[in-house]
Amino acid sequence: MSAELWNSAVRVLDTNWAGDHMVPSRRLYPHQWSWDAAFIAIGLAYVNPTRAWRDLRSLFEAQWPDGRVPHIVFDPATAEADYFPGPAFWDVPAYGNRPARGSTGIVQPPMHAIAAWEVYRHAAAHGAACAQEARTELEWLYPRLVAQQRYLTTGRNLGRAGLASIVHPWESGLDNSPAWDEAMANVPADLALLSRYRRRDLDVSDAAHRPTDLDYSRYVGLVVSYRAEGYSDAGLLDRHAFAVECPAFNSILASAELALAQIAGELGLSAEAAGHRDRAGQITAAIIRRLWNERTGTFHARDVHTGKLTPANCVSGLLPLMLPDLPADLVRAVMDEMRSERFGLPVPSYDRTAPDFDTMRYWRGPVWINVNWLIRRGLLMHGFRDEAEDLRTAMVRLVHRNGHFEYFHPTSGEGLGAPTFSWTAALSLDLLADRSVPAYAKAG
């Protein structure tokens, strides 16, 4: 099984390589996506570290002057008609050395420092030349990763409580998660927008697998709102209908600071390393203070406008397990939630017992390899090695039996969404190699 899955994953990554970056899939996602690039680099490093570094560098070459890393970098060779919302819709002005309409104006979870550190750790296995390349790339990326973190921890600290806010569900990476339902209910829904801006995802995918038209009209409206002010974050809370503190996004933000501490240490920047560790601790404390729900024993997203925690039990609420300084009683509670009938292994994107649990619709029930990979990271972080191995085995079997799909039916395991999906292939390589224990994990 291992050799067959390894070879099929390599073929997917070869198929989706676009010269200087990786696309998630050729038909549905023909550009470069931000957090996809991070997950992809982690697995790609095992077979082609030069491409792994090039993919990350290509993404950060499109970084905005304020530090934000756009959630999509558009490939100018791809026609506007081949993807919506495309460059003309986003209408991003020129910045730095980038042409106008070269990217989007929103972000995704900052997985990139974690990816850079993982790629660097694996470089030694490829010999001295790869190790030197890795050092050079790490030096180039480090200040850009710091700028990304600074943007998120300052410009996006909309609640003034130490957490980054997402201003569009797409920024979470968990696009139509029930975690956003209450906050999205306050966003005006104008279905007429879909007459003016026609979605094209349904041309190449099953409508039952994708967000609804109502969801999509709100997504488009939020971009129009943000675009109208040139994607400025100044005074954003007063004029923008959606602002949410997400436990998954902020857990990745804190984990990125820990990865930056490792990178800074490797580069001989001891004072900077200490600062990154301090910031990771501050973000962790804010996650606990702001997003922990004592009644449910798990973490929930907070609507910054209303101050309310979402009632939905989503996979995002389990992601703080990634944090090494999460108190032991909270770790036990999250583990109890993960083991309960609401979730189980592999972990679905939403509570299996909820009346609106949907086995096929994107982030409203299906199993995704990337978040399960992050949960496994958390299990290893806190010494749950048996559960981590059970989850690794379940993920490997799921992909081997059903293919490198974007996501999977939580009961049958059927592959859903885009086939030949890059991060599923890349993370399969990492799971097969079984070297994903972070250097800063707790002993267990």
Automatic annotation (TrEMBL):
InterPro entries with a match to the protein in the record: 6-hairpin_glycosidase_sf, 6hp_glycosidase-like_sf, Glycoside_hydrolase_63, MGH1-like_GH
Keyword Hydrolase: yes
Family: Belongs to the glycosyl hydrolase 63 family.
Keyword vocabulary terms for this entry: Glycosidase, Hydrolase
Signal peptide: none
GO molecular function list: Glc3Man9GlcNAc2 oligosaccharide glucosidase activity
Protein name in UniProt: Mannosylglycerate hydrolase MGH1-like glycoside hydrolase domain-containing protein
BP GO terms, sorted: oligosaccharide metabolic process; protein N-linked glycosylation
Gene3D superfamilies, per the entry: 1.50.10.10
One protein family per Pfam: MGH1-like_GH
Coiled coil: none
Domain Mannosylglycerate hydrolase MGH1-like glycoside hydrolase: 29-424
